[in-house]
Amino acid sequence: RGSSARSEAKSGRTDLIFLIRFRHCCLLRNQRCLLAYLYDRLLRIRALRWEYGSVLPNAIQFHMSAEEVEWFNRYKKSLATYMRSVGGEEGLDLTQDIKPPKSLYIEVRCLRDYGEFEIDDGTTILLKKNSQHFLPRWKCEQLIRQGVLEHILS
């Protein structure tokens, strides 16, 4: 109906101009709504990188389209490149200490068997289910977000 209405309006039927304008405004509105929805999804996917780290749980990745997974991977690589470029030789991990720490060491409980875990001084700790440890906060944050460790609050 849209192309026939345009040709009739061009030939002199001015009553169809309102219909064409109304249809055009509806299309523009729908386009704005879709773009706002897609932008909101991208913001949520970006937040997932900060919350879960560089590997998303399968339950979340299952609900993402192939394009969204590709965007997540490109964002992850871009963030990693930036973090390596700042902070000297080792880079600076911006995903650590999202909230300012109250202390440098925290007490954690292992929620599942993880295996060996090395801290800065070269000490290796065996993380077994229900074991408790007093570890540097920045080394534990990623494992806490992944659900391997749980912060024990005094």
Automatic annotation (TrEMBL):
It is found in: Nucleus. It holds the Pfam family Sld5. Gene3D superfamilies: 1.20.58.1030. This is DNA replication complex GINS protein PSF1. GO terms for biological process: DNA strand elongation involved in mitotic DNA replication. It comes from Chionis minor (Black-faced sheathbill). InterPro entries: GINS_A, GINS_bundle-like_dom_sf, GINS_Psf1, PSF1_C. Keywords: DNA replication, Nucleus. The gene is Gins1. Belongs to the GINS1/PSF1 family. Residues 15-86 form the GINS subunit domain. GO terms for cellular component: GINS complex. Transmembrane segments: none annotated. Its main location: nucleus. Residues 102-153 form the DNA replication complex GINS protein PSF1 C-terminal domain. Required for correct functioning of the GINS complex, a complex that plays an essential role in the initiation of DNA replication, and progression of DNA replication forks. GINS complex seems to bind preferentially to single-stranded DNA. Component of the GINS complex.
